[in-house]
From TrEMBL:
Record flagged with keyword NADP: yes
Domain NmrA-like: start-end pairs: 6-236
Keywords on record: NADP, Oxidoreductase
Superkingdom classification of source: Eukaryota
Keyword Secreted listed: no
Protein name (database record): NmrA-like domain-containing protein
Source organism: Purpureocillium takamizusanense
Pfam family, one: NmrA
PANTHER family the record matches: CIPA-LIKE, PUTATIVE (AFU_ORTHOLOGUE AFUA_1G12460)-RELATED, NMRA-LIKE FAMILY PROTEIN
GO molecular function: oxidoreductase activity
Signal sequence, renumbered to the chain: none
Phylogenetic lineage: Eukaryota, Fungi, Dikarya, Ascomycota, Pezizomycotina
Length: 301
């Protein structure tokens, strides 16, 4: 494989992570970017972005869109995770060198995390890529960034600040890795600039190690005079309830959320990375003062 990656196709570039990845790739000045958009989509992109509309169920459409591309970065959401195998097939046919699937989040090298229902499609796609990489010239990189720091706080996922009554899972003391959307974008740029060093493996990035209790302490610092009423929640209890719902065939989106709490707040599921690829990928990290400023912006006072 040539070490040079120049032409990059983004799939799902209008989603939660997509705009940041697109902006970072453009700002790097190192790549020609094409946003591959579903036919009929009303998604918009910054002026000057090359956009190709495709029918993702059409192999011919996919091949046409990926012809001439050196890399594919998939940022599809949950509904599109399983269908990434079709995109992988098109990438192989058209000679794409590198595929980065929508794998962002927990460490799915951890055998316990791999078994969680919420990650089933991610595991399926990662295994498919590994098999194809052994048989073809396509290579891949998987990205683990643990929690999304800014996204998770803005959506009251890491710590519910909207009503000052956050749930603390299993005491709130579990330390986990957390990464901003900006740093995930830096990591993707770093992967494409270092294709040999990141070939056929998982990379790990993080901005900070933190716990729910530490987040709560920082939140209290920026809200003097506010009364916080945290309550304790058992991860085992919420997962047991989710297991029972799935066993009855209730696959509503919210019934998968407890498994994310398991992956993030149960130490044996690997939420705190032992090593990272920050230096290689240009991820600089943040300190608690950054978190304080983030909380000041998010919390309604």
């Amino acid at each position: 494989m040539s070490s040079s990656i120049k032409n990059v196709a983004l799939i799902g570039a209008a989603g939660g992570l997509g705009p940041t990845i697109l902006r970072k790739l453009v700002a790097s000045g190192a790549f020609n970017i094409t946003a591959v958009r579903r036919k009929g989509s009303k998604s918009t992109y910054p002026a000057g972005t090359t956009v190709v509309d495709v029918d993702f169920e059409s192999p011919d459409d996919l091949k046409a869109a990926l012809t001439g591309q050196d890399a594919v970065v998939s940022l599809v959401g949950v509904p599109g995770l399983a269908a990434q195998t079709h995109i992988v097939d098109a990438a192989i046919t058209t000679g794409v060198k590198r595929f980065i699937p929508s794998e962002f989040g927990s460490d799915l090298e951890n055998p316990l995390a791999r078994k969680l229902p919420v990650f089933a499609h991610k595991v399926q796609v990662a295994d498919y890529l590994a098999a194809k990489a052994r048989e073809t010239s396509l290579t891949y990189t998987l990205v683990s960034n643990a929690a999304f720091l800014d996204w998770g706080l803005e959506r009251n996922f890491l710590l519910a600040t909207a009503d000052y009554k956050p749930a603390l899972y299993d005491g709130g003391n579990t330390v986990f890795s957390a990464t901003t959307l900006e740093s995930v974008g830096d990591a993707v740029v770093g992967i494409l600039k270092h294709p040999e060093e990141t070939k056929n493996r998982r990379v790990y990035v993080e901005d900070i190690k933190i716990s729910q209790n530490r987040l709560l302490a920082l939140a209290k610092e920026v809200t003097p005079g506010k009364q916080w009423l945290p309550h304790q929640v058992s991860v085992d209890a919420v997962v047991k309830e989710a297991d029972e719902k799935l066993a009855k065939g209730d696959y509503a989106h919210e019934n998968f959320i407890p498994y994310l709490f398991r992956a993030l707040f149960d130490p044996v599921y690997g939420p705190s990375f032992e090593k990272t690829d920050n230096e290689l990928l240009g991820v600089k990290g943040v300190d608690e003062e950054f978190v304080v400023e983030l909380l000041k912006r998010i919390i309604k006072q």
